[in-house]
Design brief:
The protein is built from 11 helices and 9 strands. By secondary structure, the protein is an alpha/beta fold. It is globular.
């Protein structure tokens, strides 16, 4: 990977701080308007994001019209705007103020899993508001361990990690992450892991995801088999009706010890929830980048015919 310059890191950091502080200090209504403006700029500045999202939607949901695809992508950028606002407001969100932003549903599934005494693996994804999910969970119950990938910009990475830790959550990075996860589970703690990212050939297995073979990380299933921990899906999903998020836990998933089978179970569950909330998943990620040997990447093929935006 090409080494990033100090100047680039510094400029990106300054932009991030200005955007974050403007959202943090602005009243809620104004903050959402500002965030939608920022994500509009992001959309225009990096057109690759929309192209990737449309390609993913053409692969995963071919039954939808191009206009519906465009509407979903617009929804993705609105979802990103909501994430930016809540992340900026983290320092002000406390227990007495939390209900304005999020409520808990299905908490009994998590509590029952903890009572089993072998730890809880929380299967989550870039769906809804994954940042608020862990942040709020620590206030509602207890801090948890969260597996994170360091950001490319080390200055922004420090900024983000400080906010993630405000409610006591413990990040687990790449270094000795397997040992840290198993240690936390052995202590009957919860560990949140994102399961929706593309995996390289040496770390993933191919499963069916929206009817298309996708390489999914096998680590989650291996941790579940090794530890015997309960596996509970959980996502913070936006409710237009309530104008706040719902941190929804689902019934525990049955793991068999077969890595491929269990990984398929996880991805099938995730697909089901994404189909229910398609505009809240991060379609801009190249989810189907890794292909079986000899099969070309869908992102290297001819570009899709341009379609108009549905309107942000």
């Amino acid at each position: 990977m090409r080494r990033r310059s100090h100047l680039r890191n510094a400029l990106e950091y300054c932009v991030a701080v200005v955007a974050l502080k403007s959202l943090q200090w602005a009243p809620r209504k104004l903050a959402f308007a500002l965030a939608r403006f920022y994500t509009r700029l992001l959309d225009l500045a990096i057109p690759r994001l929309r192209r990737v999202a449309r390609r993913n939607l053409a692969l995963a949901l071919p039954e939808f019209t191009p206009l519906r695809h465009a509407q979903i992508v617009d929804g993705v950028f609105r979802s990103i705007a909501r994430i930016l606002v809540t992340f900026a407001k983290f320092p002000a969100i406390r227990r007495g103020y939390l209900g304005q932003w999020i409520r808990l549903e299905g908490g009994e599934y998590f509590d029952q899993a903890r009572q089993a005494g072998r730890g809880v693996l929380v299967a989550t994804a870039h769906l809804g508001n994954w940042e608020l999910s862990a942040f709020a969970h620590a206030l509602m119950t207890a801090p948890m361990n969260v597996v994170v990938r360091p950001l490319d910009n080390p200055l922004i990475d420090v900024l983000v990690e400080r906010r993630r830790a405000l409610t006591g959550n413990q990040p687990i990075g790449k270094k000795n992450f397997a040992r840290s996860i198993l240690k936390a589970l052995a202590a009957n703690q919860a560990v949140g892991i994102l399961i929706d990212q593309n995996a390289a050939l040496d770390t993933g297995v191919f499963v069916n995801f929206f009817g298309v073979p996708a390489s999914a990380g096998s680590g989650f299933a291996r941790f579940a088999a090794h530890s015997g921990a309960a596996v509970v899906p959980g996502f913070a999903l936006w409710s237009d009706l309530e104008q706040r998020y719902v941190l929804r836990f689902y019934p525990p998933l049955t793991m068999t010890g077969d890595v491929v089978r269990d990984t398929q179970t996880l991805q099938s569950m995730l697909e089901e929830v994404i189909r229910e909330y398609p505009d809240q998943w991060l379609w801009v990620h190249r989810r189907w980048k890794t292909r079986p040997p000899g099969e070309p990447s869908p992102y290297e093929s001819a570009p899709l015919v341009a379609t108009p935006r549905a309107g942000l």
